[in-house]
Automatic annotation (TrEMBL):
Pfam families: POR. InterPro entries: 2-oxoglutarate_synth_KorC (IPR052554), Pyrv/ketoisovalerate_OxRed_cat (IPR019752), Pyrv_flavodox_OxRed_cen (IPR002869). It comes from marine sediment metagenome. This is Pyruvate/ketoisovalerate oxidoreductase catalytic domain-containing protein. Keywords: Oxidoreductase.
Amino acid sequence: MQSEVMFAGFGGQGILLSGKILAEAAMEKGLEVAWVPSYGPEMRGGTAYCMVVVSDKTIASPIIRNPMHLVAMNRPSLEKFAPVVKPSGVVLINSSLISTGAGRDDIDELAIPVTEIARELGSVKVANIVALGAF
């Protein structure tokens, strides 16, 4: 079993933290994990993404060009990364900030208003955790 998840959004949305939490949870379960962060020079406000690979076997490469899953927290991230998600993959869309889908019929989409849910919980700063929990 190997699963690849990409988290993507604006810098400052907690994208890297979401991936790190998933990676640490998988390690606690005794699985092999690779966590690869990436962000632009702008950091806060720029595009940030990370890749998490979880496997019950040794991971040959932590770099995945076509992830099985995507958590897209903003429209630019959806537009950039949804085209490379593997067929039959899952894309979680933050419908609070993204009004359209990925435009593919070979993937499953979950549209969840994670920013709005976070606001109802008291802080939009926890939207990344809402998305992680929904995923």
